[in-house]
Amino acid sequence: MAFKNSAFAVILLASLFAKSCAAPIPRAKPLVRRTANAKRGIAFSDTTTTDLSYAANTAISWEYNWAISPPANLPSGIEHVPMQWGKASIENLQDAVEKTGFKYVLGFNEPEQTGQANISATDAASMWQQYMNPLSTSGIKIGGPAVSSAPEGKTWLENFLSACDKKCKIDFLPLHWYGQGSQYFLQYLSDMHTAFPDYNLWVTEFADTTMNNEATVQSFLTDSIQKMDALSYVERYSWFDYSVSILLFEIEIQISFLSSAPRSVCKAVSLFWSPLLHVNILFLSDLLDSSGNLNNLGKEYVQ
């Protein structure tokens, strides 16, 4: 999941794309639509909403929030999957996971990225054997480090598995992908399955980054989830993400020596970059509209 390192942000709320994050978000009514899809989950950040009621009694069977503890308002029947995001407090992981009865745990979040978990492959392998492996003795299924689809992601994963020397307990591989065109996304999954045939896949972040074309994003979602439902080596997936649409256009002024801002709810495509100036257009893959209701994308994915 992306973070933005910014000290100041000037947000342009322009014409038809302007959306306010200050307005109160109405609480949704639970849906009764269809039985849960065992593969389909939601990536959830409470940055824009704490209301998960739209996910109740729907196709959504599981959720994760980049943290160990589940959201306060997680509907009954939706499984929380904890994540050890980075190396912080990893020594407490086993106790935290085992006492709550979780069945799965996710590993480091994009460890190859300096703005994410940022852990070397050798250090990750060492910590994995010390802190992650013991979970398997309790029957907990362990998801490997979730790498991005950037070339360095696959390289890092190869180096990690090499450093593990077959001593790291891993039951499945989580992956992230952002781009355009479901055919390229599905080809990436096929390529990673071929490269790492011993593991089934969880796609814990994916989205189409097309700008200003809802139909294209909708088509991507429709095709990708239908294909993944039919792929035996894809065990689970979660669209990025279950959150409220906030803005389309943003100008960020960055001061490099200042600390990181809170976690962003959107990925961003950079149009221009320098050490001090960042201009981003944010794509709208959120499943909720600016009022906190399911948008067309959300209705197809959730209901």
How would you sum up this structure in a few lines?
With 303 residues, the chain is α/β, with parallel strands linked by helices. Helix content is 23%, strand content 21%.
Describe the structure.
- The protein has six helices and twelve strands.
- By secondary structure, the protein is of the alpha/beta class.
- Helix 2 (121-132) crosses helix 3 (151-164), helix 4 (182-195) runs parallel beside helix 5 (214-230) and helix 5 (214-230) runs parallel beside helix 6 (296-302).
- The longest helix is centred in the last third of the chain and has 17 residues, at 214-230.
- It is globular and about 45 Å long.
- 39% of the residues are buried.
| H-E string | EEEEHEHEHEHEHEEEEH
Strand content: 15-25%
Helical content stands at 10-25%
* Distance N to C terminus: 24 Å
* Rg estimate, integer Å: 19 Å
Class derived from helix and strand content? alpha/beta
**Helical segment tally?**
6
Number of strands: 12
Strand order of the largest sheet: 4-3-2-9-8-7
The major sheet is characterized as: 6 strands, parallel
Overall average pLDDT: 82
